[in-house]
Design a protein that fits this description.
Mediates influx of magnesium ions. Alternates between open and closed states. Activated by low cytoplasmic Mg(2+) levels. Inactive when cytoplasmic Mg(2+) levels are high. The chain has 328 residues and is α+β, with helices and mostly antiparallel strands. Helices cover 59% and strands 13% of the residues. Among the domains are: 1-112, 2-Layer Sandwich (Beta Polymerase, domain 2), CATH 3.30.460; 264-319, Methane Monooxygenase Hydroxylase, Chain G, domain 1 (Up-down Bundle), CATH 1.20.58. Helix 4 packs across helix 5 (127-161), helix 6 (172-209) runs antiparallel to helix 7 and helix 7 (217-283) packs antiparallel against helix 8 (298-319).
Length: 328
């Protein structure tokens, strides 16, 4: 889809070259080859294709051809719990800001609404203003995703360290499995956000080194503030990564404890079952010379002995805290 984002008017689709006149921001969303060629015909520029935007070396992500700057970065997309990362291309020409993306992004949709809500006098009709505003909107959206991810980790932390009674131990294994999956998702999210922040930060550094805002002190100041915001968010991501690792270690530790409790239970059951079986085996032997064979109370003695051999070990194990919940 080939979209035009005019200032003071709703976004609309570009179907012919005349539709893109007097518009500073052109937006290609999962474009076809025909739409890319139409954009090239409108702007007179050569636009990168998706495989070029997915290159990882810095020289392929940031370069200049005459007075046109070509930028790209991976950008994380988090909608309804679904995490994906797609490349986003930014082409800055004297008269146009051109974005190439392959998914709907909340940040870009928010910027589009900002443009539509203002009149023609608004500064966002300027390409440099549009560029810095786009980067700021991306960083703000990444900050929102990080904030939600931080709340999710806090929730996971409360679940991991919540006290559990003996009645809940049967559900502990399933709970810890769900927590492991959520921690894995949080770790993937932190990695993707870090990659997106690194890409935006490199764009800001490149624009600063290229002196793109050299004649605009206000925009240079906003670019420096943007760099500080990205640095603070990177610190938050680092802290989040450490917390994910800590919670992962704690969860695995609780899983190990739960497995040890299971082994203790098996040990108790095995030990309790062995002694009465031994007694029953001894008195079940059919030898002719057995003094207890004709004893009147031998049967009851054997039952009592087997019962005592069960109860006494259980009492010892309970006093040692191997099973049960003595606090209740």
């Amino acid at each position: 889809m080939f979209l035009a984002h005019p200032v003071g008017r709703p976004v609309y689709e570009v179907l012919a070259a005349e539709d893109a006149k007097a518009v500073s921001w052109l937006d290609l969303v999962d474009p076809t080859e025909e739409e890319i060629r139409l954009a090239e015909a409108v702007t007179g520029l050569v636009l990168p294709r998706r495989d070029a935007l997915e290159e990882i070396e810095s020289s392929s992500r940031h370069y200049r051809r005459g007075d046109v700057i070509y930028l790209s970065t991976p950008l994380v997309r988090m909608i309804d719990g679904s995490l994906t990362t797609y490349p986003v291309g930014i082409v800055i020409a004297p008269n146009w800001l051109i974005t190439l993306r392959y998914a709907a992004y909340t940040a870009i949709e928010s910027m589009s609404r900002d443009l539509a809500a203002n009149d023609e006098d608004f500064a966002l009709s300027d390409v440099q203003e549009l560029t810095i505003h786009l980067l700021e909107t991306m960083v703000n959206r990444l900050a929102d995703i990080l904030e939600n991810a931080g709340h999710t980790l806090d929730s996971i932390s409360r679940e991991v360290f919540a006290p559990r009674g003996s009645r809940e131990r049967g559900r502990t294994a399933n709970l810890l499995r769900r927590i492991l999956r959520r921690l894995g998702e949080s770790g993937d999210l932190a990695s993707s956000i870090r990659e997106s922040l690194l890409g935006v930060d490199r764009i800001g550094i490149y624009l600063g080194d290229a002196c793109y805002f050299e004649s605009r002190d206000a925009l240079q100041t906003r670019l420096r503030i943007l760099g500080r915001d990205v640095a603070s968010l990177n610190d938050f991501v680092a802290q989040m990564t450490v917390k994910v690792q800590f919670l992962l270690d704690a969860t695995l530790g609780f899983i190990s404890i739960d497995q040890n409790d299971g082994m203790k239970l098996l040990t108790v059951v095995s030990f309790v079952g062995i002694t009465p079986t031994l007694i029953a085996g001894v008195y079940g032997m059919n030898f002719r010379n057995m003094p207890e064979l004709g004893w009147r109370y031998g049967y009851y003695y054997g039952l009592a002995l087997m019962g005592a051999s069960v109860l006494l070990p259980l009492l010892v194990f309970w006093r040692r805290g191997w099973f049960g919940d003595r606090s209740t």
